[in-house]
Design goal:
With 376 residues, the protein is α/β, with parallel strands linked by helices. The protein has 17 helices and eight strands. The chain starts with a helix and ends with a helix. Bound molecules: adenosine-5'-triphosphate and magnesium ion. Adenosine-5'-triphosphate binds next to helix 2 and strand 7.
Length: 376
């Protein structure tokens, strides 16, 4: 196992944490940000929906503004942080709205887009929009001289690939052949006849999700036409974002737990990265059983004796059961780690282990415990 994430992320201005839902992406992203601040960098951590207790303890409110974590918080937790940690809560809709405001050719176009029903669906509920906007945000702040490094926590997706494929999927949904046909029809006729376009619409709906109601087609075509104008061709815009996902100074840290579904997901993600000529920079296996394994029964009995306690038979049986559970868990985790090793293949990235802590990671102290593993 390598000593630290530090050398693995050398020269990577942007660090993206991806993984299955609930494995600890937000925790790891916050820890990485803390780790770089600890070495004197000014770090921006873009996060999505952090656990409320963690946000509260960092003094972060659920606003979309950048918020500097108070240096006193670190000092009172006994940490010396020569750098700075700024947190930005990603607000998908607001990021999209800002994009519209920045690029719209006129106030009238801006308002038409912002008020369009299809827009409100795409900017809030379309799968992949959140990931896409996360990258838009990264593109925006990467030039910001106030930050040395950006750490991006990614949304809980049902599939981490939603993240990597987000721009393309949006292009597909918005710029599919059916959609283009729809737009052309709209431009030619100026209005739709429902029967006439029904077949095309069925195709579009498959891409864009289920959305019906009066005026839907008009909204849809209007939205696409205006969005295209907005971005000088949405395709090019999304392609630029897609390219940013593959930049050489962008690092992917895959986060997983020992659960088979989470391991599956990072394996798949790593394979997809490889297909695209990229590779993960590190894998963090979070929530492993703590090492070393619990004491043997004999050790426990003698430790109890030293405390002047005599363990009853039922207590001993309970301890034995617990020890058996622990051993089974350790065997299971060892198998999962072996599996991970084999699926990542010969060119596997460094794999770092983080044990499950006795409590949730909900404050600076908790983060520093995880940090001790990732940045020893
Ligand atoms: N090593 C750990 N030990 C104990 N608790 C942990 C550890 N890592 C994470 N947790 C806790 O697990 C919960 C989920 O972690 P986190 O929010 O980081 O996951 P996530 O992958 O971001 O989830 P989501 O996919 O919902 O965004 C949190 O309450 C966090 O404090
Ligand atoms: Mg999260």
């Amino acid at each position: 196992m390598p000593e630290s994430l530090r050398p693995l992320l050398e020269g990577k201005q942007i660090v993206v944490c991806v993984g299955a839902g609930g494995v600890g992406k937000t925790t790891v992203a916050a820890t990485i940000a803390l780790g770089f601040a600890q070495q004197g960098e000014r770090v921006l951590c873009i996060t999505i929906d952090p656990a409320k207790r963690l946000a509260d303890s960092l003094g972060i409110t659920m606003s979309a503004e950048e918020q500097l974590v108070s240096p006193e918080l670190f000092t009172s937790a006994g940490l010396e942080i020569p750098g700075q940690l700024t947190v930005l809560m990603l607000d998908t809709k607001r990021t999209f709205d800002d994009l519209v405001r920045r690029h719209a050719s006129s106030p009238a176009v801006r308002d038409r887009i912002l008020e369009n029903r299809i827009y409100s669906y795409v900017s809030t509920s379309l799968a992949g929009t959140q990931s896409y906007m996360a990258m838009e945000k990264v593109l925006l702040v990467r030039q910001d001289p106030r930050f040395d490094r950006i750490v991006l926590d990614t949304p809980p997706t049902s599939n981490a690939l939603d993240f990597l494929d987000a721009p393309e999927r949006l292009i597909e949904a918005i710029d599919s052949a059916a959609m283009r046909w729809l737009v052309q029809t709209f431009e030619k006729s100026g209005r739709f006849s429902l029967n006439f376009v029904a077949r095309g619409v069925a195709l579009v709906l498959r891409g864009i999700g289920r959305l019906t109601g009066k005026g839907f087609l008009e909204h849809l075509a209007e939205f696409v036409v205006e969005l295209n104008e907005l971005f000088g061709g949405f395709r090019e815009r999304a392609a630029a974002v897609a390219k940013a996902f593959r930049a050489p100074d962008l690092a992917y840290v895959l986060v997983t737990s020992p659960a088979p579904a989470a391991i599956d997901e990072v394996s798949y993600f790593a394979a997809r990265l490889r297909e695209q000529g990229m590779h993960p920079d590190a894998v963090v296996v979070n929530r492993l059983q703590p090492n070393p394994p619990p004491a043997s029964l004999a050790e426990l009995i003698s430790a109890a004796r030293e405390l002047g306690l005599e363990l009853s038979e039922s207590a001993i049986a309970g301890v034995q059961r617990a020890a058996e559970d622990d051993r089974a868990r350790a065997r299971f985790e060892a198998e999962q780690l072996e599996l991970l090793d084999s699926v990542l293949g010969a060119e596997r990235p460094a794999i770092l282990h983080v044990p499950v802590l006795s409590r949730d990671v909900h404050d600076v102290r908790g983060l520093s415990l995880v940090s001790a593993r990732l940045f020893p």
